[in-house]
Amino acid sequence: MNTYITLAAQLADLTSIYSTLVQHYLGPVVIIGAAVFSLWFFIKKQPRPLLVSLATALLTAVILYAAPAIMGQQSTLVKNGSEIAKQIN
Hints:
Elements: H1 2-12, H2 15-43, H3 47-71, H4 76-88
């Protein structure tokens, strides 16, 4: 019975799964997709869609790679939100 509880506790930690998923799958897909769209717009000589595609790729990459630091349990954003919620209640 105790081994099942330990196994459940290990499975509950999703940070390693998230980091593996982002580093091995989602991150490269974003980079390859941005490169393809940017190259497409560069070949068609359309500067505005090129810049929009690069900005979107940059924003997506920042969200993917910075999400644990921004939304983690020990992050400043979460701590401030919990303090505000405590003050309201």
